[in-house]
């Protein structure tokens, strides 16, 4: 669970981005006793008077941090970044999980979680797109002839679009309609026609919009709030990017309105308002219906989050590139050590219950773990054949119900096991006295205060276990210390460069279990193991699935040809790794 007192909001206050980013962050954080914001005072690009702007002055719970030195004093748990275009966050926040909202800049590739709230061109690259986090107004406009028109281009209006629209109004438009304009904070009123009501700041504007029949604005929060109030909307945007967003959402807009002259704007306004008078209700019905959604609290959603380790599990680097995003997890590749890894946001509790080895195992393999026991033992014998050390002390971490250790004991090894599941440990204690079994998590194991000690084992095995750990930079040195010099570490794990990962990476990532934090291949395995004191690394690729080949190869290759190709190219979906301790 995220501690809401440790959430830091970073909204955009730059020239050209308006005040909408700050406004919605303030609304989201309004329920907090203290709402922490990073609003740097030295930001020369700031479009907002941070001392005197009404949005700031009326927010009693706002705690402002204006320097990186201040940020270092709090142990932040989460950053909510609503900055539109971000290149990087302050270096002191480098390893804090970031939820980037409607982010369009390079940081979108690195952010822990990308949440698109406004309809965007990049929806496929987001973890989630949730319209319901916007708290739309409840009051709607009554059906009536078009009469009252509001011009509002936010708290900044960087393209001076309000004045351009006002300059284009002819006598007919001014006389036939009641016009109002909301100017930016401290905007100039000298050039406004006498027939136009001038407003400087409207508190809680969204709940006043139903009093108007048409809102002229640019693509953004005010446009969506007006639609939710069942008000007509015409968009004049400050650039082509917003034109494209308007087109995607099918909101009427003036193409390249920011380039049009006074006469062209006047022609467009007369034509568009005329069409709205003729049949506006029917043409806007589908747009209005999109806005009828139940509000969801962003803060409640954030507080339910449980975020796994943020940095690379192997080397601790934050240099990374996103390779997949899903609702409750993101996948990255570390550009430093090449490991593919998951950052998880909603952790399932009690993953290793009895169901893990029975109903869940049967769902995946068609039989329970104990029913599959003979097959697992057979695989254990094959693995023992591949381990170069043939006698001594062997530790199987995550030994489950003990099939591998039974075969190791048969071959003369002193068999030791560590298992987190109480049911599995009890089963071994009751049935297999030849196994020295201990219950617990390897992560929490203190080798200086336990039955395990440094340089104790000749062989350590982890069969489909290594991927379950989210901190390999601590785990791999601990494994190394338990092994004798020249001892063998043997692992098996899903193969990120197998047939599934090679030809349908997104599906492979989507279906990867929620407790698999790392996805290994040969390159990342070599780097990870060498980094932590292992050498003589060998691989044995398993899990060949000709039926998982892409359709085009299925059409031209027989089943046996595909199987041979998979073996030849190492395209199995699982593989084993054998490494020796030593420099």
TrEMBL record:
Q: Which Gene3D superfamilies match?
A: 3.40.50.11190, Glycogen Phosphorylase B, Vaccinia Virus protein VP39
What is one GO biological process annotated to this record?
methylation
- Which protein, by its recorded name, is this? Methyltransferase domain-containing protein
Q: Does the keyword Oxidoreductase apply?
A: no
Which domain of life does this protein belong to? Bacteria
Q: Which SUPFAM superfamilies match?
A: S-adenosyl-L-methionine-dependent methyltransferases, UDP-Glycosyltransferase/glycogen phosphorylase
Q: Which PANTHER family match?
A: TRANS-ACONITATE 2-METHYLTRANSFERASE-RELATED (PTHR43861)
Q: Which Pfam families match?
A: Methyltransf_23 (PF13489)
Q: Which UniProt keywords apply?
A: Methyltransferase, Transferase
Cite a single GO MF annotation. Answer: methyltransferase activity
Report the source organism: Oceanispirochaeta crateris
């Amino acid at each position: 669970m995220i501690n809401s007192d440790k959430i830091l909001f970073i909204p955009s206050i730059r020239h050209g981005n308006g005040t909408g980013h700050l406004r919605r962050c303030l609304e989201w954080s309004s329920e907090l006793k203290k709402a922490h914001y990073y609003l740097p005072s030295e930001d020369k690009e700031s479009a907002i008077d941070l001392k005197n702007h009404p949005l700031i002055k009326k927010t009693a719970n706002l705690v402002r941090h204006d320097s990186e030195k201040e940020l270092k004093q709090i142990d932040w748990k989460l950053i909510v970044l609503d900055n539109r275009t971000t290149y990087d966050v302050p270096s002191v926040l480098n390893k804090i999980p970031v939820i980037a909202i409607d982010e369009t800049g390079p940081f979108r590739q690195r952010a822990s979680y990308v949440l698109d709230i406004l309809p965007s061109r990049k929806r496929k690259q987001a973890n989630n797109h949730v319209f319901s986090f916007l708290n739309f107004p409840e009051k709607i406009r009554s059906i009536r002839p078009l009469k009252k028109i509001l011009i509002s281009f936010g708290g900044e209006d960087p393209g001076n679009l309000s004045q351009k629209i006002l300059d284009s109004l002819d006598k007919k438009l001014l006389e036939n309609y009641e016009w109002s304009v909301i100017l930016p904070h401290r905007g100039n009123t000298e050039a406004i026609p006498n027939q136009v009501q001038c407003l400087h700041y409207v508190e809680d504007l969204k709940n006043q919009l139903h009093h108007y029949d048409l809102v002229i604005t640019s693509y953004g929060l005010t446009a969506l709030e007006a639609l939710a109030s069942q008000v007509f909307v015409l968009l004049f945007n400050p650039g082509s990017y917003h034109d494209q967003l308007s087109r995607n959402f099918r909101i009427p807009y003036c193409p390249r309105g920011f380039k049009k002259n006074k006469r062209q704007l006047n022609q467009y306004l007369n034509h568009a308002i005329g069409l709205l008078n003729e049949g506006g209700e029917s043409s806007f019905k589908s747009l209005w219906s999109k806005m009828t959604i139940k509000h969801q609290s962003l803060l409640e959603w954030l507080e339910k989050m449980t975020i796994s380790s943020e940095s690379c599990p192997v080397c601790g680097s934050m240099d990374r590139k996103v390779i997949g995003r899903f609702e409750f997890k993101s996948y990255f590749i570390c550009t430093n050590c090449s490991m593919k890894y998951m950052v998880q946001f909603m952790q399932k509790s009690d993953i290793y219950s009895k169901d893990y080895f029975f109903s869940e195992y049967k769902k995946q393999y068609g039989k329970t773990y104990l029913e599959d026991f003979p097959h697992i033992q057979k695989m254990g014998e094959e693995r023992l054949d591949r381990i170069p050390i043939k006698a001594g002390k062997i530790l199987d971490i995550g030994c489950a119900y003990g099939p591998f250790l039974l075969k190791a004991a048969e071959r003369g090894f002193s068999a030791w096991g560590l298992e987190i599941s109480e049911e599995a440990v009890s089963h071994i204690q009751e049935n297999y006295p030849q196994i020295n079994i201990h219950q617990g998590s390897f992560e929490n194991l203190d080798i200086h205060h336990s039955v395990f000690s440094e340089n104790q084992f000749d062989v350590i095995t982890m069969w489909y276990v290594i991927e379950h750990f989210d901190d390999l930079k601590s785990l791999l040195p601990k494994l190394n210390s338990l092994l004798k010099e020249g001892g063998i570490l043997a692992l098996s794990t899903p193969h990120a460069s197998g047939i599934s990962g090679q030809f349908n990476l997104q599906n492979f990532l989507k279906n990867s279990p929620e407790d698999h934090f790392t996805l290994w291949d040969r390159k990342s395995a070599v780097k990870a193991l060498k980094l932590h004191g292992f050498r003589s690394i060998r691989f044995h690729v398993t899990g060949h699935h000709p039926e998982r080949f892409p359709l085009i190869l299925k059409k031209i290759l027989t089943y046996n040809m595909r199987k041979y190709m998979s073996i030849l190219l190492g395209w199995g979906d699982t593989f084993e790794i054998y490494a020796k301790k030593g420099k």
